[in-house]
Design goal:
- By secondary structure, the protein is α+β, with helices and mostly antiparallel strands.
- It folds into two domains: 2-37, YefM-like fold (3-Layer(aba) Sandwich); 49-87, no CATH class.
- It is built from four helices and three strands; from the N terminus they run βααββαα.
- The chain has helices spanning 6-11, 13-20, 49-64, 77-87; strands spanning 2-5, 25-29, 33-37.
- It has a three-stranded mixed beta sheet with strand order 1-2-3.
- The N and C termini lie far apart (43 Å).
């Protein structure tokens, strides 16, 4: 883990962006606290807390209404996922 001040980060951003691909980089600031620099990679899902809570509530409602998918006897996870994709 690399810990740097916000001033050091501002002066050498390119260096710390590159470093964040392989190591944890923590940026500290007296007035704003500490932050971890994390690269966003393909497949990451970025949701706000409100969006996530809305999706969870919708899932709970769907479950309560019986709007669910169940695996068939003897069905493997890959087969199940393929069936879900075909259903959409």
């Amino acid at each position: 883990m690399v810990v740097v001040s916000s001033r050091e980060f501002r002066a050498n951003q390119r260096k710390y962006f590159a470093l964040a691909k392989s190591d944890d980089v923590v940026i500290t600031s007296r007035s704003h606290g500490s932050y971890r620099l994390v690269p966003v990679v393909e497949g990451d899902t970025l949701l706000s807390r409100d969006e996530l809570e809305t999706k969870i509530r919708q899932g709970i409602e769907d479950y309560a209404k019986g709007k669910v998918f169940r695996m068939n006897d003897g069905e493997g996870s890959e087969e199940f996922l393929n069936r879900l994709i075909e259903t959409e």
